[in-house]
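Async update (no meeting this week)

Hi team, since we skipped the sync, here's where things stand on the single-chain job. The sequence we agreed to prioritize is pasted below, unchanged from the tracker. I ran it this morning and attached the output directly underneath so nobody has to dig for it. Comments welcome in thread, and please keep replies under the output.
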Amino acid sequence: MTLLHITNDFSGSTVYKNLISHLDSLGVRQIVYTPVKHQGLVGKNHVQLKVPGSEIIYDKILNKHLDRLFYRRKIKKIMTHIENRIDLTEVGQIHAHTWYSDGGVAYLLSKKHRIPYVVTVRNSDLNVFYRYLIHERTIGRKILENAKKITLISAVYKIRLAELLTNNTSSQKLNDKMTVIPNGVDPYWINNKVTERSLVLTSEKPVEILYVGKFDKGKNVFNLIRAIRHLNDEKMNCQLVLVGGGGDDQNRVMRCVENYTFVRYLGVQYDRDKLREIFRNADIFAMPSKAETFGLVYIEALLQGIPVIYTKGEGIDGFYDNSIGEKVVSTSPKEIANCIRKIISKYGEYDFNPAEIAQAHDWTAIGKRYLQLYCV
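Output:
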């Protein structure tokens, strides 16, 4: 059997690269088809696959403007290109890595060529496509109804999707198809997890709050800065360390870096050994995103022994109990400050085990779970 992956964002995330690499190590023949918007994405996150006949196809066919506006035109165009470049008689299964963008293509291919497919539901599907493309909800339901299995990266996304489908006549059947499979982390972080955690804060230095990622508005970095400014106004002596950059809120965040002495900017860190030390020097990791499919960086932080601040109803919410940190109910500066204050006040109570977290996010085990799903 050849497994066909359809993924619009293969070049934009290492998640797909890790999954495909581990399936390759399990002997799965795979064709990865990724339509891209511009030439700079061609070849990004490429994997040298060992199973004979496996390949990754980057296809520069997407238009940044038209394909955003005309969804059905986009999925028909992608389907046609797949039919022209891939021998579908050899494909026994399709994995569509998003509900709408990839799932729509899988749905059309399945109708025409009778190939079963698995579809994954992500952040953009629930928070963008389903919310704003109201006129495309009919095809959205058809994609799910015709899928063999529906996978969700986040436990709370399963709950949210089930709630959206409660008025659907086939809602119970759809619910029975759903399974949660979390993302794994890069083996580097598994192999370099801490074995002992510090459960105390020292008064000799400021409480160090760390953020790692892009400076997108959805990541809520600006409100995080405002929250820490409020805490310092209360004489709590907190420092924010920012790692990363880029994104649509870059300029506003960088103005804060220039104006506030409690913000320290370390730039983008490609050296993982340096990034590991940055994690271990921090006391709290905070990423109060407005929307988050999963957020691997939370797991990386937990593996380095530091509690995290995340968002209710997003990302890792639902996977773990309160022992890992605090979740913001809203993403306002006041709420973020309250959660930081709470972690500081009871720091020793966040008694999680990095070894158990590593076991839950090991790509080797996750690859086997997907393989079982394909074979059902």
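Quick observations from my side:
The radius of gyration is 22 Å.
The mean pLDDT is 93.
Reply here if anything looks off.
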